[in-house]
Design goal:
By secondary structure, the chain is α/β, with parallel strands linked by helices. The chain has nine helices and seven strands, in the order αββαβαβββαβααααα.
Length: 335
């Protein structure tokens, strides 16, 4: 069973963000380029699937029991919203781009207190219509609302405070039909609270969202959070390169700003081929070559250029960039 804990991948991603922020104390000769890097998933699912499907399991309420039927309606609302949001979120991941991800519902009638996995015959039955080989299943979700409102004296007049909380308990599984294996079990727990102050009584459905709106939003959170865990996603970062010191460096910086890294590399090579160039300028040109190679995906070559830069001159920014690059390579190995 997996719960919401901070994993080594999450720590690595956090370190990557911190290093990126510490990388930039830009001067006039430093230029900034925005890039997107791929953040690996924290939970492992197979990569060789051809057709995924998302299924939300729903429990029916007890006929004639108003409280049971109301609870079932809230849970169903959250379940379908979670499944839809998960499917929509997965489209942004390179693993799922170009695929249509059907969203289905499934009524469960088992009475076990444990959230047992489906039998493989049931999994095959669910997947048969869409010819799916990867079932992403919201096995169970329960939304427990609580609310209250009371009056108080604010020093001038009578005022009111009210809140609505939704306690969320949800469980996900992924079924790999090719290997007949269950992976990426995940228990999600959370509490979402809305509150408001007013000079009239604070009510659910007035100043606070209604129960079904809050349930729908709870499902949104459940789906979007699980999508982040099972699929690689893009993360915004920044890099710097140097643009001053010579006319070639300025010309290269202009091309780099237009995303013409090959053209810019030609000018940086001219700088490095100049036997009379100052060591600091040569080091910056080599540093820029490392950035250019990272931009086109040549990470090992980028590290070689950083080593070359260090041979010319000790640039203040080089150690931080090396850590960024090495960490990115480490994260890519987990994909």
């Amino acid at each position: 069973m997996t719960t919401k804990t901070v994993s080594s991948i999450k720590l690595n991603v956090l370190l990557l963000v911190v290093l990126s922020l510490s990388f930039f104390s830009c001067t006039q000769n430093k230029k900034v380029v925005n890039i997107q890097t791929l953040r690996p998933s924290e939970l492992t699912i197979p990569k060789d699937f051809s057709q995924p499907i998302v299924v939300a399991s729903i429990y029916k309420g007890i006929e004639g029991d108003r409280e049971s039927m109301a609870q079932a309606a809230l849970d169903s609302t959250a379940a379908m919203e979670a499944a839809i949001v998960l499917a929509e979120s997965l489209y942004d991941s390179p693993w799922f781009q170009g695929l249509k991800i059907p969203v289905r519902s499934n009524y469960r009638d088992d009475s076990s207190r444990l959230i047992l996995p489906f039998k493989w015959s049931k999994v095959e039955e669910i997947c048969a219509k869409d010819n799916a080989d990867l079932l992403i299943s919201l096995e169970y979700i329960k939304i427990t609302p609580s609310s209250d409102s009371y009056s108080y004296w604010d020093g001038v007049t009578n005022a009111y405070y009210g809140y609505l909380s939704m306690n969320i308990y949800a469980y996900w599984r992924v079924y790999d039909l090719n290997r007949k294996k269950v992976v990426a079990d995940y228990l999600y727990r959370d509490t979402i609270t809305w509150e408001d102050y007013d000079y009239i009584n604070v009510r659910v459905g007035d100043q606070l969202p209604g129960f079904f709106s809050a349930s729908s939003y709870s499902g949104y959170v459940v789906g979007s959070e699980y999508a982040k865990l099972i699929a690689p996603s893009w993360m915004d970062e920044q890099r710097i390169y140097f643009g001053g010191g010579s006319k070639e460096m300025r010309a290269a910086a202009e091309l780099a700003s237009q995303n013409d890294w090959l053209g810019a590399a030609g000018y940086w090579q001219q700088v490095l081929n100049n036997q009379k160039v100052k060591p600091e300028i040569a080091a910056k040109a080599a540093f820029n070559m490392a950035v250019a190679n990272e931009m086109v995906g040549n990470f090992d070559v980028a590290l070689e250029w950083l080593n070359k830069s260090a041979e010319y001159y000790s640039i203040l920014e080089l150690p931080t960039y090396r850590k960024l690059l090495e960490l990115r390579i480490k994260l890519l190995e987990k994909l």
